[in-house]
Design a protein that fits this description.
The protein is of the alpha/beta class. Helices cover 60% and strands 9% of the residues. The strands form 2 sheets. Strands 3, 4, 5, 6, 7 and 8 form a 6-stranded mixed beta sheet that branches. A two-stranded antiparallel ribbon has the order 1-2. β1 and β2 form a beta hairpin. α9 packs across α13. The longest helix has 28 residues, at 113-140. The radius of gyration is 29 Å and the shape is elongated.
Amino acid sequence: MPIRPSALLLLLGLSLSGCAGGVRTSPVTPAELQSLDQDATSYARDGDALTRVGIRFHDAGSYERARDVLTAALGLRPSFTTAVYLGLSFEGLQSFDEAETSYRMAGTLGLSEEQRKELDRRIASLSRTRLALEARQAVARETELARTPPVPNSVAVLPWSYVGGNRRQQGLGAGVAQLVMTDLGKISAIGLVERSRVQALLDEMALGDAGHVDPASAARSGRLLRANYVVAGVVRETNNGVRLEASIYRTTDGSLVANAGSDDRIEALFEMEKSVVLSLVDQLGVTVTPGERRALTERSTGDLQAFLAFSDGLSAHDRGDFRSAGGLFALAAGRDPAFGAARQFGAANGILLAGAGSSVAALERLANPASPAASGIRGTSLLMAVQVISPSTGAEVDLRARNPAGNPRLAEALRQDNPSRIAIIGDIIIIIPRP
């Protein structure tokens, strides 16, 4: 096979690009981008070469071509590097389900502990990225969605607002809304919109607390979520305690369907919430079985202080402050070990906290063939590059490298990550037969 200069620069350049701070690759020039398609054809049966071509397509932002080339490479020779860059290419195409599938495949291959942790972080980060994209798309398609019938009997519970000056109770809006959502979730005739989807949409719409209870804004939020009904509410501080006020709106026309309220001492908060939910359900006309009605009387916790900590944790979680949220969920679960919601939210919050630390640069560093974490022998990529350019020459170089007595300089250079690797190109050129 004739040696094309573009292929030589591509493969040797990639093998020499590793550095301690991460991956350093040269920009993809228009001329190189054009030649990459030819490289993909020339090396159609070589998984390692296709991986390098796919990486360069990815670096150029040509994600569709990167996806196609890396998919072929993965079928020929599964590797962590190939699977990771395929996932990153899918992310570039905003195909997050496929990206997660690629990352999970990468996780089945032999990994270092650092690689596994970074991969887990990346997978965790995809959930928020996916939800944020769906919210943006929903807002962009608002006119279309307004003409689309909602999902029958579906309900979206918005975060409640808190009106008062007691700092210890500031998180009650989020906490009471979660209690309402938990109770409505016990009724089989009601389909709930996931809390994370609701929060992602509200973040995209940038609605403040007042927007959550405004009838027009509440109905609009529900339409974008394709919910049939939306529940909005307020926790108000009173002289003697708190008052809960809840309303249900039909999203298609914004009409009020049900409303309920209850006020008492803060210590009676859980009984008040049950009273409000039962009133709303009865007004909504939803069929509730005797077993479901009994379940509606069950409490998530009887410890008010645990619930206050849990509510503050939800507020921090919704702000994206996952570190503070984790401590608050742990405090709630510590006060009441039977408080299942605190443990569940704590576990989910921990995953998002890990995901928040994910970065493309870190994953690329660990996936790059020249990365110390990806290869025990630093010169392997250089040797593989020569093998791709000319299999017979690669075999000859490999043979000489394995015989230090015969060519000690070559053997040593292929095991180094310093300028001596560059100098060895001269030795390789001497070995390559000239026309």
